[in-house]
Design brief:
By secondary structure, the protein is of the alpha+beta class. It has two domains: 10-133 and 225-270, no CATH class; 136-217. The chain is built from five helices and 17 strands. It has helices spanning 53-62, 124-135, 150-159, 202-205, 261-270; strands spanning 10-19, 29-30, 40-41, 46-47, 67-73, 76-83, 86-94, 97-100, 103-107, 116-121, 140-144, 163-170, 173-180, 183-189, 211-217, 227-228, 234-242. The strands form three sheets. Strands 2, 3, 4, 5, 6, 7, 8, 10 and 16 form a nine-stranded antiparallel β-sheet that branches. Strands 11-15-12-13-14 form a five-stranded antiparallel β-sheet. The longest helix is centred in the middle third of the chain and has 12 residues, at 124-135. It starts with 9 loop residues before the first strand and ends with a helix. 42% of the residues are buried.
């Protein structure tokens, strides 16, 4: 839907917006880079021009989906991580960096803005580990890799049966090792998104400028909180934005689409701090 003022300087975008209860997820705020692993995309490349976001999330909730809903457009990427149909983490990336969210917004099919939507499927334990990387406080931040033995760190986390993630940050790439009860579930990076053994990150961790962040817990019965994706209460909002004056009425061009799911995962990494 396009609404113009008398001088044709305002375009209105119609969006769905839903806030998550404060008790369900940690508060919004800046977080470290959060690349996503490659996942199976069973629905193909969708767009907001024909997909109703709230109904899509209700569909995923009914099927107890585990994975990620990735919504990209307007120079921003939003990710909702789902575990058995519940949203367990929300994160977004734009030119300012990576932020944890407490509100999810999605354009409606009536909106002028067209966003790409990808639904990735992960094993449930992978979704949980990604959510913990986003939500857990940092146990160790910015450990210089030049004095940390990376395999030794993973062995230490294995002995204490830690769950969560270890992030490896170096120039040009960010890697992640996911853990559950001390067992490595898989390792990947923005450039190598396929889940693999942790050895795939040894070269990155050996870079002179590499730093390590550890987001883990040793609470064996720690409950993963979230909100059922089908229970979100959505509001229909209009968001005006300025555009250059036009001398004649003309169709407003659609926003460019993004690339395949793995590239969107790279986009999450690329917008990181």
């Amino acid at each position: 839907m396009i609404v113009r003022t008398s001088d044709s300087t305002t375009v209105t975008s119609v969006v769905w917006s839903a806030s998550v209860e404060r008790s369900a997820l940690p508060p919004a705020g800046p977080v470290g880079p959060c690349p996503l692993p490659a996942g199976v995309s069973t629905l193909g490349q969708l767009t907001s021009s024909f997909v109703d976001g709230p109904r899509l999330l209700s569909h995923l909730a009914e099927r107890r989906h585990s994975g990620a809903l990735i919504e990209a457009g307007g120079e921003r990427v939003q990710v909702a991580v789902l575990h058995q149909g519940a949203i367990v983490a929300l994160v977004a990336v734009d030119e300012t960096g990576t932020r944890r969210l407490d509100t999810l917004t999605m354009p409606t099919p009536a909106s002028q803005e067209i966003h790409d939507i990808t639904v990735s499927t992960y094993r449930p334990e992978i979704a949980v580990a990604i959510a913990r990387m986003i939500n857990l406080p940092v146990r160790f931040r910015g450990l210089p890799a030049n004095f940390v033995d990376f395999p030794g760190l993973l062995a230490h986390l294995g002995r204490e049966r830690a769950s969560g993630a270890v992030r490896v940050i170096a120039a040009g790439d960010v890697g992640v090792v996911l853990l559950r009860d001390g067992v490595v579930l898989g390792a990947y990076s923005g450039r190598l998104p396929e889940l693999d053994d942790p050895e795939v990150l040894f070269g990155l961790a050996a870079a002179p400028d590499a730093e390590l962040d550890v987001h883990t817990t040793v609470e064996t019965e720690m409950e993963l909180t979230g909100v059922p994706a089908g229970d979100l209460v959505w509001s229909r909002l209009t968001a005006p934005r300025s555009t250059p004056p036009a001398t004649a009425e003309a169709p407003i061009a659609e926003a460019p689409t993004t690339e395949a799911p793995t590239t969107e995962a790279d986009a999450v990494e690329a917008g990181a701090e």
